[in-house]
Amino acid sequence: MIGDHILVLPGGGYEDLAAHEGEPVQKWLERAGVAASVCPYPVNSRHPLPLEAIRAEIRRVREAGAERIGLMGFSAGGHAAASAALAPGARPDERVDAVVLGYPVVSMELETHAGSRRALLGDEPADNLRAQTSVDRMVTPQAPPFFIWHTAPDDAVPVEHSYRLASALARAGVNHEFHVFAEGGHGLGIRDVPLGAVVWRELCERWLGTRGWLPREV
């Protein structure tokens, strides 16, 4: 048995996987006391291929003995993580138990982030496809708990994305924690984080600890 496990999904606009949002995050989680690995979901691939690949990795980790599986995603990786957690049609062994999102792409109906939308859905996706792939529209009362953080000055993926998801979680009565920091831009990961936002890791560790994901509450 390997106990609990968190899959890390880097950002990169569905065109690349940002290295600083992958292995460094994995190592931080492991130092905190939870097993983790980077999930190399396919990029430059149209929907639903990334979703299917993430669900396959969830099944693989569960078959290896994970009792609970969490997802931690950043930017477009946040959209991928939230999709895997919320999209309908998941098998019982593909469901996850917690989701952590940093400055996530949430809505494909907003004009931003156009690069992620283009890479995932094509140049001119139909309105119904944009709606179907907007994770704020996927929330149900059965969703797992979420921890979300964003920065107010983010001009690549505006904080409106996270507000939409947090509002949907609140309406559905889903347990969640949501932080917006006054400083910082996009793509911060765990490096070069401004003073105001650097506490996201401490807050996240506390959130995970209170749910039994860490060896002790931090």
From TrEMBL:
Signal peptide: none annotated. Residues 66-189 form the Peptidase S9 prolyl oligopeptidase catalytic domain. InterPro entries: AB_hydrolase_fold (IPR029058), GDXG_lipolytic_enzyme (IPR050300), Peptidase_S9_cat (IPR001375). Pfam families: Peptidase_S9. Keywords: Hydrolase. PANTHER family: AB HYDROLASE SUPERFAMILY PROTEIN C4A8.06C, PEPTIDASE S9 PROLYL OLIGOPEPTIDASE CATALYTIC DOMAIN-CONTAINING PROTEIN. This is Peptidase S9 prolyl oligopeptidase catalytic domain-containing protein. The lineage of its organism: Bacteria, Bacillati, Actinomycetota, Actinomycetes, Micrococcales.
